[in-house]
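Let us work through a complete example step by step.
Step 1: write down the sequence.
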Amino acid sequence: MAEKNIIGYLVNKIPYKVFDEVITFIDKTGKKYSCLSLGSKKIASKNGRNLFLGSLIEFQIFESRNENKLSRLKKASVINENDWKMEIQKDFIMLNLTIIKAKYTSKEFYRYYKNMLELIKSNKYGEQINELVILKTFIQLVGIFIELNECIVCGSSNVKNFSVNNKGVLCPICAMKIKDKHNEIILSNLQQLFNGNYLSINNNVKQTIFVLKTLVFKN
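Step 2: predict the structure and record it as tokens.
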């Protein structure tokens, strides 16, 4: 194993055995690394006290040359520590889940993570609207197409509902033929969201989050 120093954001921790963890972080090029962190769950562990999700950290690792074998963490040195209390916030959990979800990443994903982390910390909109912004930005980043102006079936501009399975809006006539549909409030929320009018979203926010989560995590 070759020794390597990498600066990145810690985005995931998975318990492994009794005192160990598998950690994942993303560097400024957008590359994701997974490493075995031995003993970091022990109370006296120096590495463990530095491994807060969302922290910018310099990771000193022994990088595995074998794709089927995990690299191993030697030392974690905090550059910018994130508040550990954020680990239970729904918007922060969503941000980390989207990075874990992404199969292919680039430097844009690093910027996305940094920008969304700053949004969460600013507390400008609150957790639920932050979740919507995170999901919307991720959808745009990975290129999931959503039609919000014309009926996805017939092309009519008289739209009233949104279909998750069809990834687009429906006119009243086409909506009668499709069971998978959501009401005008959800459609309005999505239109406001993708137009950047975040403060205009105030009803059925949880259901709108559910719709976007379905689009992201079932693709």
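Step 3: interpret the result. The helical segments are 90-101, 107-122, 127-142, 172-175, 184-194, 205-217.
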